[in-house]
Amino acid sequence: MQDTQLFNEGFALMGLGMGFVFVFLTVLVIVTTLMSRFIGRFFPEPSADATAATPRPAPAAQDDALMAVIGAAIHRYRRDRRR
Amino acid sequence: MIDKILTLWTGSGLYNLSPGQAVMLAVGLLLLWLAIAKKFEPLLLVPIGFGGILANIPEAGLALSAAEQAAHLGRPELLERLASALRVSLEPGAGIEAWRHTLSEALHGHPAPALVRAANDAAIDAGYAHGMLYHFYSVAIASGIAPLVIFMGVGAMTDFGPLLANPRTLFLGAAAQFGIFATLLGAVGMTTLGWMDFSLNQAAAIGIIGGADGPTSIYVSSLLAPELLGAIAVASYSYMALVPLIQPPIMRALTTKHERGIAMTQLRPVSKREKIVFPISLLTLVALFLPDAAPLLGMFCFGNLMRECGVVERLSDTAQHALINTVTIFLGLSVGSKLMADRFLAVETLGILGLGMVAFAIGTACGILMAKLLNAVSKAPINPLIGSAGVSAVPMAARVSNKVGLESNPHNFLLMHAMGPNVAGVIGSAVAAGVMIKYLG
């Protein structure tokens, strides 16, 4: 008898849980879609700008790193030579 | 002289090694072998396996609390004090071994926290201390902190771009959670049939394995069924490692070759603003509808916001690398500490491992069926294979979708499309966890 009750409770939890997960994610789909549309309409991102802006700093950073590596290599080379 | 040698012998690990401990040491070594030779989730299985070995060293008691150690080693006077602290009675003529047994049983049986504190105090007064792994466990897992910090790191590693470009994939993440609840029902059903003995709380904690999300399962079982934590953590992490073996046969069985070859339209670019606003709107929904999921999803959103906002690079970097690695070490060792012979070696563990596998398979199947449904009703084509990524297991499940897709159509790259349901699965299983905690906690 108690076992049947346990099973029923498990069943209730399943219905409730699955229902809630679906409702929550449906609301999330709606909110996300609205949010995307809102942002797309009122703050349109100049996409050309975005693509142009991102690559530019990247080479600069790479150059810095490259310069540091080259500098270190020259330094070590000279130091090793002196010995 | 011979007495001294005898003392050394009776205090040795070999003398005290119980058969259960020997088995668990072998299990620990097996986990290490799987991690090192087979590369199964090595980041977790190495600490878990090693923690399991440490926890089962005879007499060292690394994973025991002060009271448990005192019950095992203490003098009769101390045992009497422990018994009075725990409010259990010791039979006067039963002998000291029987007393030790009664006390250990009483401590394992989850007495009220106040009684445990009193017993621990009595043991500490007598000069016993908590074991190292016991400390790790209480700081990292019993407090709930380690899974939450890991969730923050996962948030900081997650790119919601594919999900934002195609929000409908959230439904796939929802469908795959059916595995969780079906397994819960399975565990309850086994109890009804008299095969196992699981309470509803335990059944819920076992079901969460179907979410294929390690931190979520550890968090839920630490709240609902701490006594099953070892088996649940081992099951959920092993199945995450087994994703590439478990999922493809189910995916092939449920789809036709034509469906597997469906090409999906390219995802639209997602602006930075959308990515920044998304974690905040998700958190708002959690706050409005399911505050019980707030610890998990709150940390997740926080990590993701740090990643996307672009002004706290250093914090985001720490959350993704240094912090998550540190916490993983302690989480693994703490989970390993739950692999103690007398608690892990039970029929229930086998039941948990079996049910976990079922949970996982059902989740995969439901995700695929949901994807077929979406494909039937929507204008844009959806390849059913991405549905299987709805069980979390980021990013392994998405890679499996990609791989199976490439088998049918070598020009069809599904990876980015599958990342959407994959992160949706993380959100879905956290929501499911929140519902369980709300209902049972």
From TrEMBL, chain A:
Annotated family: Belongs to the OadG family.
Any one Gene Ontology cellular component term annotated for this protein: plasma membrane
GO molecular function term, any single one: decarboxylation-driven active transmembrane transporter activity
HAMAP family: OadG (MF_00404)
Membrane association type: Single-pass membrane protein
Segments passing through the bilayer: 12-34
Species of the source: Halomonas organivorans
Reaction catalyzed: oxaloacetate + 2 Na(+)(in) + H(+) = pyruvate + 2 Na(+)(out) + CO2
EC code(s) of this entry: 7.2.4.2
Subunit-structure text: Heterotrimer of an alpha, a beta and a gamma subunit.
Record keywords: Cell membrane, Ion transport, Lyase, Membrane, Sodium, Sodium transport, Translocase, Transmembrane, Transmembrane helix, Transport
Subcellular localization(s) per the UniProt record: Cell membrane
Domain of life, per lineage: Bacteria
One BP term from GO: sodium ion export across plasma membrane
InterPro entries: Na_pump_deCOase (IPR005899), OadG (IPR023424)
Class of the enzyme per the UniProt entry, highest EC level: translocase
Annotated protein name in UniProt: Probable oxaloacetate decarboxylase gamma chain
Cofactor field: Na(+)
Purpose: Catalyzes the decarboxylation of oxaloacetate coupled to Na(+) translocation.
Major location category of this protein: membrane
UniProtKB/TrEMBL annotation, chain B:
EC number: 7.2.4.2
Principal subcellular localisation of the protein: membrane
Protein keywords: Cell membrane, Ion transport, Lyase, Membrane, Sodium, Sodium transport, Translocase, Transmembrane, Transmembrane helix, Transport
GO molecular function: decarboxylation-driven active transmembrane transporter activity; lyase activity
TM helices/strands, residue ranges: 20-37, 44-67, 134-157, 169-190, 228-246, 276-298, 318-337, 349-370, 413-437
Known cofactor(s): Na(+)
Catalysed transformations (reactions): oxaloacetate + 2 Na(+)(in) + H(+) = pyruvate + 2 Na(+)(out) + CO2
EC main group: translocase
One Gene Ontology term, aspect cellular component: plasma membrane
Function per UniProt: Catalyzes the decarboxylation of oxaloacetate coupled to Na(+) translocation.
Protein name: Oxaloacetate decarboxylase beta chain
Organism: Halomonas organivorans
